[in-house]
Design goal:
By secondary structure, the chain is mostly helical. It contains 20 helices and 4 strands.
Length: about 450
């Protein structure tokens, strides 16, 4: 295939250099966006009289046919092609000759590729938000169903206070809701058209950049032509948002791994999302959750690669920037795959509520409620804290629990204790009375569920 940029150079590019220079295997996925951009550009050229209306219509019609042929597989990408932009232009020129060569008037590959990446990432971001929406709906359904299931809440991986399983799940829902907001924010800043900046300095043709931007659904145009072709902030911002989202999925995966272990047995993952061992027949491994946890590092690596790629580039476009697509596309693919596994894995897991409740009954996680009982009776908190610590030490020595400690023993430490203590420190009471906004009570969990579902109405 002849080079579109032939003219200045008379020699033949080395085959290995051609392959090294080619990005077609990476950027060919943007063919639909490339053609959409070219159709909008050709329409504007015709309306502004830069090319004839007849040529504009012929180009638009033929680009539509090329798009159909690529979708159907009738037209395939040739090995050795330089990039998707040159491939589409070559296919166009092959079909309509010199008319096709008019398409690139008042346009450079620099602003063309910047446009295609924005269009592609905008499309993929909307798909990502929909995947997150499905995961959030799953979490809210599970949280509502298990709003009264008591489990230990942890700090430092030590049992701390009783909470509900629904409350725990809603913590992840809040994280993922912010991930949706971050992606939406990134798309808002990304949604400006660079087309018309040309190579770096704009053009002498009487173009209408706003016309093309509107046709492609952008909110406006990038206001500086140098910035338009050299900016990849939108890639960095999405890479960061995807990395944060992967971190949240990784934390949730870690909990699923712990909870499904024999030591916890809080949940059982479906066989559809687990594997066995090649040598130990009793094993059921949470491999999907482990892979999500492991792939997080991959997305972090892509983000670091993008930041490193951009940090030393002078204005405007540099060939280094061709490396942006492989990193951000891999992050898109990885996050999408992880979300598509996480949602059904949660939907199909078995929750062992009785095991969670039994675990919550151990470890003195209602000790704070004993101290709160004394405070409500008028004792200063620090004094109540000390007495409760002494009671816990007594239970450890006697191999007993706070709920089963006789009232006479309690009164050895303070005469404030009365028989109503036992109802106060029941785990169900401890949970139910934490009605503060965002708390763990079943009613508070339902309020959080409603909050997230209301948010999703506008997503």
């Amino acid at each position: 295939m002849s080079k579109m940029w032939a003219g200045r150079a008379s020699g033949v590019t080395d085959a290995a250099a051609d392959d090294f220079n080619s990005s077609l295997r990476v950027d060919s996925r943007m063919y639909a966006q490339d053609i959409r951009g070219s159709i909008a550009h050709a329409g504007m050229l015709g309306r502004k009289g830069i090319i004839s209306k007849e040529d504009s219509e012929t180009i638009i019609k033929t680009l539509g046919e090329i798009l159909d042929d690529l979708k159907s597989g009738k037209l395939t990408f040739e090995a050795g092609g330089e990039d998707v932009h040159m491939f589409v232009e070559a296919a166009l020129t092959e079909r309509i000759g010199d008319v096709g060569r008019r398409l690139h008037t008042a346009r450079s590959r620099n602003d063309q590729v910047a446009l295609d990446v924005r269009l592609y990432l905008r499309d993929e971001s909307m798909s990502m938000i929909e995947r997150l929406r499905e995961l959030l709906l799953t979490l809210t359904d599970l949280a509502e169903e298990h709003r009264g299931v008591i489990m230990p809440g942890y700090t430092h991986l030590q049992r701390a206070q009783p909470i509900t399983f629904g409350h725990h799940l809603m913590a992840y829902a809040m994280m993922l809701m912010r991930d949706v907001e971050r992606i939406i924010d990134a798309v808002t800043r990304m949604n400006y058209s660079p087309l018309g900046a040309c190579a770096l300095a704009g053009t002498t043709y009487p173009t209408d950049r706003g016309d093309v931007a509107a046709a492609l659904g952008f909110d406006g145009v990038v206001q500086n032509s140098l910035d338009a072709v050299s900016d990849r902030d939108f890639c960095l911002e999405l890479a960061s948002a995807f990395s944060i989202c992967m971190m949240h999925l990784s934390r949730l995966s870690e909990e699923l791994i712990l909870w499904s272990s024999w030591e916890f047995r809080f949940i059982e993952l479906s066989d559809a999302y687990s594997t066995g061992s090649s040598i130990m027949p009793q094993k059921k491994n949470p491999d999907m959750a482990e892979l999500i946890r492991g792939k997080t590092g991959r997305v972090y690596g892509n983000m670091t690669a993008l930041f490193t790629l951009m940090k030393g580039l002078p204005l405007a476009y540099n060939k280094d920037m061709q490396e942006d697509k492989e990193a951000i596309f891999d992050s898109v693919d990885t996050l999408a795959a992880c979300l598509e596994i996480m949602t059904p894995m949660l939907k199909t897991m078995r929750v062992r509520s009785e095991v969670m409740r039994d675990a919550a009954a151990k470890g003195f996680i209602n000790a704070t409620d004993v101290a709160d009982y004394l405070v409500k009776k008028g004792m200063p908190f620090r004094t109540a804290y000390k007495i409760t610590g002494q009671l816990v030490a007594r239970c450890i020595a006697d191999a007993s629990e706070l709920e089963s400690l006789p009232l006479a023993v309690y009164r050895e430490y303070s005469e404030i204790f009365e028989g109503d203590l036992y109802d106060e420190i029941r785990l169900e009471t401890c949970v139910a009375r934490r009605t503060s906004e965002g708390g763990t009570s079943p009613d508070s969990v339902l309020a959080q569920v409603a909050y997230v579902r209301e948010f999703l109405k506008d997503v």
